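User: Hey, quick favor. My workstation is busy. Could you predict this chain's structure for me?
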Amino acid sequence: MSAGAAHTAEPVLRGRTTVRRPARTAPGQRKDHKMSLKDKAEATSRQLAGAAEEKIGTATGNDRLAGQGREHQAEGRLKEAAAEVKETVAGAAEKAKEAAQDVADKAGRLFKK
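Assistant: No problem, here it is.
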C-alpha cells in the first residue's frame, strides 16, 4: 500500500472471533480536526477586526474604540493559542491510543504462542 493511500479497517484475530479495528492514520498523515480549523478561522477574523477597530479608533481619536480593538486582538490571539493546544492534545491522544492498541496486539500475540 502506498504512503498516501487511505488505510481501511484491518481484521484482528482475538481468540476464535475476528474483531474489526478502526483504520489508523498512515505515518506522516494527520486526522482532520475540524473544530480546530474553525476555531483558528474565528480567531484570525477576531484579530483582523480588532486591528481595524484599533486603527479607526486611533485615527478618529476614539480611545474607547482603540481599546476595544486591542482587546479583540488579544482575544483572537488567545483563541488561536487555545485551538493549537486543542489540536496538539487531540494528536497526542490519538498517538497514545494507537500505542496502547499496539501493546495490546503484541501482548495478545505473545500469549497465543
